[in-house]
Amino acid sequence: MKTELAQTWAGFWDGRTEREKNLLTWGGAALGVVIAWSILWAPAQDGRAHLRDTLPAMQRQLAQMTAQAEEARRLSGAAQGVAPTGGALKDALTASLTDHGLTPLQVELIGNAVQVQLKNASFPVWTAWVDDVRRQFKVQVAEAHITALKDDGQVDLTASLQPSTTK
Fold it and tell me: Which CATH homologous superfamily contains domain 87-163?
C-alpha cells in the first residue's frame, strides 16, 4: 500500500513540468499557511480579544458577589440574634408544633410568655421540640406541668415558654 502510493505520487510528480512543480509547491505552502491560520491562530486571537473585552466585567461581578456574600454572612449573624416575641412567637411555636407532629390542645399568649397545652403527647418528641425551639427561637421553659399517662412515654402537659434572657 505504501509503495503503491509512493509510485502513484512519483508518476504524478514526474509527469509535471518545472513550472507546474513550482506552482504546486508554492500553492501547497500558501494553502498550508491559510489552513494553519484559520484553524490555529485566528480562533486563539479571537478568544484573546473576547477575554480582554469580558474580563473587566467578570472581575466587577466577582467583586460584587464577594461583597454580597460578606453582607449575607453579616446579616445572617444579626438575624440569628433576633428572637420573635408576642404574637409572632405564638405563631412560630404553633407552626413548629405542627411541623414536629404534635397537635396542641391550646396555644395561648399570656403576657410575654406562650402557654402550650398538649394531651397524650409523646414525651421524647416534646423534649426534642423544646430543644429545637430553644435554639431556633431563643425561648426557655418558664414553667411546666407534666403528668405521665399509663402508656409508656405519653404525657399530658402544660408549659409556658418565654423569650430567653441569656444570649
Answer: General secretion pathway protein M, EpsM (3.30.1360.100)
